[in-house]
Amino acid sequence: MMQGQEFNIGEMIFHHTGDSHELEFEPFGTIHLPEWQPIHIGSLTIDLSPTKHVVLIMLTGLIVYTLLKATAIGVERARKAGRAPHGFSGAMEAFVLWVRQDVAIGNIGHEMGPRYAPLVMSFFFFILVANLLGLLPWSSTPSGNLAFTGALALIAFVAIEVGGMTKLGFKGYMRTIFPPIDGLPPGAAIAMSIFMAPIEFMSKLVKPFALTVRLFGNMTAGHFVILALFGIVFMFGHFGVASWGIGFATALVVLGVMILELVVAAIQAYVFALLTAVFIGLMQHEH
Amino acid sequence: MQNLPAPFQPTLGVAIWTWIVFILLFILLAKTVFPAILKATTDREARIKKDLEDAERLRNETAAMVEEQRQLLASARGEATAIVAEAREAAERERATAVEKTRQEQEELLHRARREIEAERERAVADIRREAIDIAISAAGKVVGARLDAAADRKIVEDYIASIAGGARG
């Protein structure tokens, strides 16, 4: 087994977690995605060619919409029949309402909560499905892509800041950057407030950055662990009979990590939605 | 950025696709899906609330009705007792009246019987006396050998008998 010596775990891991212009369905074949000419806007070069992650993002959107639309139809049908929904739509309804009540309204407040709840619910289900998709064979998780998590965090950032601005007004919003300092003479208070501004501004930026890195890190790390464990199979494949034992043990450990990943997928979706709601709520109640 | 491994290279293209897909999904969900689910839930909540209120109202009404029935029953029982007592009293009165009436009738009957006996006795005595006078006159006529004047003789005999009767009574 010469392959064992030539096998590079790091390369394999980066290859599988990274984005590409191909959808690999080994051993059945590979689909090559079209590559378009990048668009140049000033110094910016934008390549909108669909990649593996773009396909998965679209698939995620489609799955989330289909699931929730089916739920809505089931719930609506039950409503017309004058009873409570049961089965799939009943379970999904409870799920949706839990995210709405406990995650969104619970953290944003009863006044503004219902307004932001659809966004928080969309975040939750979108990220949950994206995370879970990564656990399927031939797949890869788009939430293991910094561009994906960053783009979502930016939406959350805009919701937090624009929401704050509309609620607090321009003057009230500026106070979140230049905090009023009590107990100092006027001049010193203004100086102190200006000194505090960069810190306040940083704290605003840190929130979406933390959202970005947390989701990306958790999802990527999980896949790294699974792929690294699978790498053991290839590395020790030349051990003859013993390789069977190694393969079996590795498969068992990977199974355990996979189960853990299922939990992590749900938790990270929850954490992203929860923190977005908490940040929106904090901003809404800023004085 | 270029020399970083693949997962750590964010590309603007993926970010833009993420925005397109997510914003589209968000709009679709917010417009068509979430309101439907929420409407059904609020409707159901309202219905359950209404059902509970109806049940509460019915329960109160039933309790009131039961209370009313109980009062009615109690008053009916009191009335029935009063009626029975009154009936008993009336019967008692009736009985007393009947007894009194019977007693009076009996008395009356007795009294009348006594009077009739008395009258009968007096008539019998008068009859005997007349008979005795007739015998006495006929006997005296035979003794004196002549027929005596009936009216005058009768007077004498009557007086005599009266004296005997007076002597006998005295």
* Strand order across the largest sheet of chain A: 1-2
Helix count from the secondary structure assignment of chain A: 8
Helix content of chain A: over 70%
Averaged pLDDT of chain B: 87
- The count of helical stretches of chain B stands at 2
**What radius of gyration of chain B results from the CA coordinates?**
64 Å
Query: Class by helix and strand content of chain A?
Result: mainly alpha
Computed structural class of chain B: mainly alpha
Description:
- The complex is a heterodimer of chains A (287) and B (170).
- The termini of chain A are far apart.
- Chain A is mostly helical and 287 residues long.
- In chain A, strand 3 and strand 4 form a beta hairpin.
- Chain B is mainly α.
- Chain B has 2 helices and no strands.
- The chains are: A mainly alpha (287), B mainly alpha (170).
- The interface between A and B is large, with 56 and 36 residues.
What's the helix and strand layout?
The complex is a heterodimer of chains A (about 290) and B (about 170).
Chain A: H1 3-6, H2 9-17, E1 22-25, E2 29-32, E3 39-41, E4 44-46, H3 52-80, H4 87-108, H5 113-133, H6 146-175, H7 186-235, H8 242-284
Antiparallel strand pairs in A: 1-2, 3-4
Helix pairs in contact in A: 2-7, 3-4, 3-5, 4-5, 4-8, 5-8, 6-7, 6-8, 7-8
Chain B: H1 12-144, H2 150-169
